[in-house]
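Try this one yourself first.
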């Protein structure tokens, strides 16, 4: 099986020649795909820096998926991307290997060029201190930097990357694929941490918020006995995060969070989420969502008559979730 570094596209170059190799790439087209050779000024019209740190749990196939997610993201937000590929083991020479890659796409007009530059760095554990220095050289100093840590094994070890964590405008993690303590770890700047799982849930959060906002706080909280979010195994992480959001919103209405719990749906069904509010009286609320078919439904009676509503539902696609976590 190829390594993550070898699986990613690009032209291998000496680490000390990354900057000049990027200039030559834009001028001559080596390693460049998309719309061909562009003027250097056009090629450098980037807006943000993105550092994608592929942890040791990342497979080559998974690395390619994340590579293409960032590539698609660059069609909206031209960017410089530095991909970090750690190697297994604590021993060995502290040597880095590098690749470069670039693509350009036209926007709405021929004057609207969207370009992305990739610098891909492979490094063994003994070289991690040199890695941050090299990454800083590859980034555009006058542009914001977003640090996406993907499938890392140890939160404590990730915290050792002081330069990246200190400079990052946002630290992006996906709580579905990182250690359980990642969201509660005392990061140097916890206000910068964003969860991609939470971002993916934006359509669900909006749908629930819009439906329930038509009712008063008293109607929602009075007599509430239990909130149960049952979920399919495929969306376990999303259910955990969604329930946390529900608990927080109910808490703002004065409803204790210990009313809320998760449950598992039977295997083989089509429903992804089944959310129910149980009350002491005749009031009730239920929301079901089937991500496979893209359909959801609300059934509620908060003392003013039964309401039924069908709507569409989905999770944000990876590129849009990345944008949501970065900028909102």
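Now uncover the answer:
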């Amino acid at each position: 099986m190829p390594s993550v570094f070898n699986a990613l596209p690009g032209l291998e170059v000496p680490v000390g020649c990354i900057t000049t190799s990027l200039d030559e790439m834009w001028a001559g087209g080596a390693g460049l795909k998309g719309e061909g050779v562009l003027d250097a000024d056009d090629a450098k019209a980037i807006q943000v820096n993105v550092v994608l740190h592929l942890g040791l749990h990342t497979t080559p196939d998974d690395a390619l998926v994340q590579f293409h997610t960032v590539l698609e993201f660059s069609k909206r937000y031209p960017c410089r991307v530095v991909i970090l590929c750690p190697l297994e083991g604590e021993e060995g020479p502290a040597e880095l290997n590098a690749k470069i890659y670039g693509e350009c796409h036209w926007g709405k007009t021929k004057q609207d060029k969207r370009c992305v530059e990739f610098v891909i760095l492979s490094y063994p554990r003994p070289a991690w201190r040199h890695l941050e220095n090299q990454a800083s050289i590859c980034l555009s100093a006058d542009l914001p930097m977003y640090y996406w840590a993907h499938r890392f094994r140890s939160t404590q070890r990730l915290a050792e990357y002081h330069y990246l964590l200190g400079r990052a405008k946002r630290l992006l993690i996906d709580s579905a694929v990182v250690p359980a303590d990642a969201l509660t770890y005392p990061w140097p700047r916890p206000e910068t941490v964003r969860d991609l799982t939470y971002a993916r849930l934006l359509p669900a959060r909006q749908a629930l918020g819009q439906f329930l906002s038509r009712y008063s706080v008293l109607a929602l909280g009075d007599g509430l006995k239990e909130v149960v979010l049952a979920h399919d195994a495929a969306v376990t992480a999303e259910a955990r995060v969604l329930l946390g959001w529900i608990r927080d919103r109910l808490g703002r209405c004065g409803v204790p969070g210990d009313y809320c719990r998760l449950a598992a749906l039977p295997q083989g069904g089509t429903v992804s989420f089944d959310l129910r509010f149980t009350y002491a009286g005749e009031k009730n609320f239920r929301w079901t969502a089937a991500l496979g078919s893209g359909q959801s439904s609300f059934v509620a009676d908060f003392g003013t008559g039964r309401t039924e509503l069908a709507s569409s539902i989905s999770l944000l696609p990876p590129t849009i979730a990345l944008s949501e976590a970065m900028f909102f």
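Discussion: The first strand starts at residue 11 and ends at 13. The chain has two domains: 4-195, 202-312.
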